[in-house]
Design a protein that fits this description.
single chain; 464 residues; alpha/beta; five-stranded mixed barrel; 21 strands; globular
Length: 464
């Protein structure tokens, strides 16, 4: 790691500085935000939720959703006023924009918001201490949006803040797929997999800090191809098997996957690794082969169906979620019908669906035959109605089951606990706070639109 001086005011014994990190987007961004806080902690930064008391504000941005950059600039406008007010009181404020919007629109950010001190892409946050020092020395803007040759994971602190009973662990970054609608290859770079030893070491630390479930993260996590200590390359299936042997690690999940990368060993792991939960997020985006080709997805709807059939053969109780985009340029009513047919045939416990919106620099942004907004709205409403009905049916079908849930905290009502089922559904039940952080045996008793109710198996826990 590059040595850098501690900025003025952060010497040992000085008052602690305050750090506010606002995070948009995927769970990988949440993971990145946590690691940024870890990197900045040795400089004296402690967390705050109040911009008025923050000595440093980091906006960790996402470029996937519509109007992402407008939301960032709106927030920056408010932070400009906060920075002025703090300056009038003699307090300096560092404002940083990180993440995918920073990577894609760094020049525009510095031009439109000159009060921003730092712009950094998702591959450079391990350099934050050096950037803070440069800002303190020169009082000028610092821009770091390259794709460094060094591995940022090699430069991060080994010990991060505890995440709780559910922990997230990035094992793969970047994407080589170049889907026509997606900015990830341009903002996160080429596919990179962390070495096996690094992943296992971090997983052990997370378990030692209290994690009972670890979710592996990656833009294409099932494309994982990490180097093992003996020089061989492991796929995700083998990595999951090794992680399942860590004492105290009781549950495993992974996201987000690509249908093309569901290999034989990974599918088999779903039936052979008890710790691997029976829930998989597998984005398909469309049920039309013509649209899938236009999206450059590299697979047909039939491949997705075959993968689903094989997963259900390996693990009969597996539940699926997926992503769908309606109104991709050139999509016809018949193409939309093909998507509806696929949804009806496969059945999903949960799904995320969106209207296509152009992303600057992506091939689809300038494609002909853009679908009118009114038509996209109508198609989205019909798809979401079907998906909501399937989610409700799946939740209702779970009522009466006995299962182990991971208790993550308290609910909104007195004596109520919040947990997650093996199928990732939120569930609430009454029980002692001593259960938080562990598994509890419950019976699912009622289904609600977005959660379940349950009763605790009192006899089992009394015996324990």
């Amino acid at each position: 790691m590059t040595d850098c001086p501690i900025p003025s005011g952060t010497s040992p014994g000085a008052p602690r500085k305050r750090l506010l990190i606002r995070t948009w987007g995927c769970q990988m961004n949440v993971y990145d935000s946590a690691r940024m806080a870890d990197v900045l902690a040795p400089l004296g930064y402690a967390p705050t939720e109040d911009p008025a008391e923050a000595d440093m504000v980091v906006l960790n941005t996402c470029h996937i959703r519509e109007k992402a950059s407008e939301k960032v600039f709106s927030d920056l406008g408010r932070l400009r006023e906060t920075k002025k007010e703090r300056a009038a009181a003699g307090k300096a404020t560092i404002i940083a924009v990180a993440g995918c919007v920073a990577q894609a629109e760094g020049a525009e950010i510095t031009a439109r918001a000159p009060w921003v001190d730092m712009v950094l892409g998702p591959q450079t946050y391990h350099r934050l201490p050096e950037m803070v020092a440069r800002v303190a020395r020169a009082a000028g803007q610092v821009i770091e949006t390259d794709f460094p040759a060094d591995d940022k994971f090699d430069h991060l602190p080994e010990a991060g803040a505890p995440q709780g009973p559910v922990a997230f662990l990035t094992v793969q970054e970047g994407c080589d797929k170049f889907c026509s609608f997606c900015v990830v290859p341009y903002t996160r770079g080429a596919e990179f997999s962390r070495p096996v030893q690094s992943v296992l070491a971090e997983a052990r630390r997370l378990v030692a800090q209290g994690a009972r479930e670890v979710a592996l993260l990656g833009q294409n996590v099932n494309a994982y191809h990490g180097e093992a200590p003996d020089g061989r390359v492991w796929g995700l299936g083998r990595l999951l098997r090794a992680l399942a042997e860590i004492p105290g690690l009781e549950r495993l999940r992974y996201a987000t996957s690509h249908p093309r990368d569901m290999d034989d060993d990974l599918i088999a792991a779903h039936g052979e690794v008890p710790a691997l939960m029976p829930f998989l997020h597998l984005p398909v985006q469309s049920g039309s082969d013509r649209v899938l080709a236009a999206m450059n997805r590299g697979h047909k709807a039939e491949l997705f169906r075959r993968v689903v059939d094989r997963l259900r053969e390996a693990r009969p109780d597996i539940a699926l979620s997926s992503d769908f985009i309606v109104g991709h340029p050139g999509e016809t009513a018949a193409d939309h019908d093909a998507t509806m047919k696929l949804v009806e045939e496969v059945g999903f416990a949960l799904a995320y669906s969106f209207k296509y919106s152009p992303r600057p620099g992506t091939p689809a942004a300038g494609a002909p035959l853009q679908v009118p907004e009114a038509e996209k709205d109508a198609r989205l409403q019909s798809l979401q109605a079907l998906l909501r009905a399937q989610q409700a049916a799946f939740n209702a079908d779970c009522v009466g089951r006995d299962c182990d849930v991971l208790v993550t905290g308290t609910g909104r009502h007195a004596g109520q606990l919040a947990a997650r089922t093996p199928w990732l559904q939120p569930v609430h039940f009454t029980g002692p706070a001593s259960l938080i952080g562990g598994l509890a045996r419950v019976r699912l008793t009622a289904a609600h639109p977005n959660s379940l109710s349950a009763t605790l198996d009192v006899q089992e826990h009394a015996a324990a």
